From TrEMBL:
Gene3D superfamilies: Costar domain. InterPro entries: Abra, Costars_dom, Costars_sf. This is Costars domain-containing protein. One of its GO terms (molecular function) is actin binding. It holds the Pfam family Costars. GO terms for biological process: positive regulation of Rho protein signal transduction; positive regulation of transcription by RNA polymerase II. The lineage of its organism: Eukaryota, Metazoa, Ecdysozoa, Arthropoda, Hexapoda. Residues 79-158 form the Costars domain. PANTHER family: EG:152A3.3 PROTEIN-RELATED, STRIATED MUSCLE ACTIVATOR OF RHO-DEPENDENT SIGNALING-RELATED. GO terms for cellular component: sarcomere.
């Protein structure tokens, strides 16, 4: 009887030891990794079993997981882009010429002049012009503008700068409100 009690005590000592808890944690992590590799289309485990089709809705496709650091960084970047578009429109408003006397709030500036002014502020002028046109804040002829070739192309504000400011600040505020207060790193394991 004493030998059995002694063996149980020794077994309890082994089960409760720091090494055994580390081994158990390692085994648990290894198992969860094996399970995650079953849904990973790039893993070797998937090649041997056949591909399980990943189910993603149209709303989720191409977007980071909600509440993740990736989503947080993307939203912060959007806030910055909206700020840069606002600065671009303000430069056009300050340095541009009114299109007509009836509507002096709508301004126009030639791309060459805008390029010379704006390159001292930001080196992403052409991308910002395309983004601002997508949001219907400015208008210009052609698909993309290039230095020297398109210096004579006029760039127009489509709205007064006060209205543009309201639109862009509203979008920034909307994004700030949607930001997660505690973003989580995207975990590679499900």
């Amino acid at each position: 009887m004493t030998d059995v009690a002694h063996e149980l005590g020794a077994l309890r000592l082994i089960v409760d030891s720091p090494l055994s808890s580390k081994v158990a944690l390692f085994n648990q992590t290894a198992q969860s990794h094996r399970e995650s590799q079953l849904s990973n289309p790039f893993s070797d485990a998937q090649a041997s079993r056949g591909m399980a089709r990943l189910q993603i809705s149209k709303e989720e496709y191409g977007k980071p997981k909600a509440g993740s650091l990736t989503e947080y960084r993307g939203k912060k970047a959007n806030i910055q882009v909206y700020q840069e578009m606002l600065e671009l429109c303000q430069v056009i408003d300050v340095d541009g010429k009114p299109v007509s006397k009836k509507n002096p709030d709508i301004k126009m500036i030639y791309f060459g002049e805008l390029f010379n002014i704006y390159t001292h502020i930001n080196d992403k002028l052409v991308g910002l012009l395309l983004r601002a046109r997508k949001h219907d804040l400015i208008q210009f002829e052609g698909e993309c503008l290039f230095q020297r070739r398109d210096d004579h192309v006029p760039v127009y504000l489509t709205k007064p700068v006060a209205q543009i400011r309201d639109i862009l600040v509203g979008k920034q505020t909307e994004i700030r409100r949607s930001l997660s207060p505690n973003p989580q790193p995207t975990n590679m394991l499900p």
